[in-house]
Automatic annotation (TrEMBL):
InterPro entries: Aminotransferase_I/II_large (IPR004839), AspAT/PAT-like (IPR050596), NHTrfase_class1_PyrdxlP-BS (IPR004838), PyrdxlP-dep_Trfase (IPR015424), PyrdxlP-dep_Trfase_major (IPR015421), PyrdxlP-dep_Trfase_small (IPR015422)
EC number in record: 2.6.1.-
UniProt protein name: Aminotransferase
Cofactor names: pyridoxal 5'-phosphate
Domain of life, per lineage: Bacteria
Family, as annotated: Belongs to the class-I pyridoxal-phosphate-dependent aminotransferase family.
Annotated organism of origin: Aliidiomarina maris
Keyword annotations of the record: Aminotransferase, Pyridoxal phosphate, Transferase
Transferase is among the record's keywords: yes
Length: 394
């Protein structure tokens, strides 16, 4: 038995990746499993982006780059913030990293000390609490239920703040719920945050573009510009451009914080992959209509899936506003099936219905499961039929 570090013993492997892996294993054994656990677009990376990467290789962009990313890409990120968010950032306020996850990890490493508290609204993206633990800080989870459309209220935020609070995570549109905070809801959270000037806000905008609300996308910096000097925007090309495997994320925020994150990166991974940076550059600078094509398809699947799930007795499914996930309440189904937890329910669904789903408790909220609709309509229809059959057979 090896004595591993306290920090690594405090965390668990990503449950969403684990579900995908389990589904893949069962499939390899010849079982006809439908996996709805994955968190990546089923589309190929658009051709013009792939071409840019091929050209980058042929042009010899195969060496180390600047630790914080090539200057063209940092400038493209600044231009993106101006174009999409009407926000001004200079290249020294931007850091390019190896995926959105890496950007978050750099921020937590640069910002948090042992014992610091991090407020994480639940249902949360699975990695926030474990990444927080990994740097020795303490996750403080604030529950938002389906009744509040999975969004925390200003009162809940205030109640969670202590003298040790140093960071608040916001993720909108949200993985796993698909809900987005409105401009006004963010402004209301900002009012509370103004009273606590030491708290930094990490706004994870990874799904910014996968959104179908009438109102345009908003993050807290757009809703409360006076909080810009205490916010870090985290984003990347993974989801919007179907580029999960390329591993390019970026962060924008106060110069001093970005410089500290760059220092962390310089002593860990160094620059993100050179070829991928050129691909991301093409993505940000190229024709943005590729995003809309994918979003239209996600919305079509969403509309089908939400209605079909909601019609199954024991499932309550709210329409979402973006992403490619839905997060129905399944407490009714759990009762009927005699399952005490959603983990149990998901195990039963995997064994008896051959559908792989991620239990809500992986996202901090028991009584739910997350379905990813980053898969074809035919597969979704089959999955719904299997879940319906399971429910009706109880
Ligand atoms: N943030 C959220 C909310 C996500 O869902 C994901 C990916 O699942 C990420 C960040 C990380 O993205 P990347 O694959 O670029 O590391």
């Amino acid at each position: 038995d090896y004595k591993l570090s306290r920090r690594v013993n405090a965390i668990k492997p990503s449950p969403t990746l684990a579900v995908s892996q389990k589904a893949a294993e069962l499939k390899a054994q010849g079982k006809d499993v439908i996996g709805l656990g994955v968190g990546e677009p089923d589309f190929d990376t658009p051709e013009f982006i792939r071409d840019a990467a091929k050209k980058a290789i042929d042009d010899g962009h195969t060496r180390y780059t600047a630790v914080d990313g090539i200057s063209e890409l940092k400038q493209a990120v600044c231009a993106k913030f101006k174009r999409d968010n009407q926000l001004e950032y200079s290249p020294d306020q931007v850091l390019i990293s190896a995926g959105g996850k890496h950007s978050i990890f750099n921020l937590l490493t640069a910002w948090l000390n042992e014992g610091d508290e991090v407020i994480i609204p639940a249902p949360y993206w699975v990695s926030y609490p474990d990444m927080t633990l990994l740097v020795g800080a303490k996750p403080v989870v604030v529950q938002a239920t389906i009744e509040q459309e999975y969004k925390i209220t200003p009162e809940q935020l205030r109640a969670a703040i202590t003298p040790k609070t140093r960071l608040l995570f916001l993720n909108s549109p949200s993985n796993p719920t698909g809900m987005a905070y409105s401009h006004d809801e963010l402004a209301a959270l900002a009012e509370v945050l103004r009273e606590f000037p030491d708290i930094l806000i990490a706004t994870d905008d990874m799904y910014e573009h996968i959104l179908w609300t009438d109102a345009p996308f908003a993050n807290i910096v757009m809703a409360a510009p006076d909080l810009k000097n205490r916010s870090v925007i985290l984003s990347g090309v993974s989801k919007a451009y179907a580029m999960t495997g390329w591993r390019i994320g970026y962060a924008a925020g106060p110069k001093q914080i970005i410089a500290a994150m760059k220092k962390v990166q310089s002593q860990s991974t160094s620059n993100p992959t050179a070829v991928s940076q050129y691909a991301a550059l093409a993505a940000l600078e190229g024709d943005q209509s590729c995003i809309q094509t994918m979003v239209t398809e996600f919305k079509r699947r969403h509309d089908y899936l939400v209605a079909a799930l909601h019609a199954i007795p024991g499932i309550q499914c709210l329409p979402g506003q973006g992403t490619f996930y839905t997060f129905p309440n399944v407490t009714g189904l759990m009762r009927k099936a005699g399952c005490k937890t959603d983990v149990e329910l998901c195990e039963r669904l995997l064994e008896e219905a051959n559908v792989a789903l991620v239990p809500g408790s992986a996202f901090g909220t028991d009584g739910y499961f997350r379905l990813s609709f980053a898969t074809s309509m035919e597969v979704l229809e089959q999955a719904v039929a299997r879940i319906r059959e399971f429910a009706e057979g109880l």
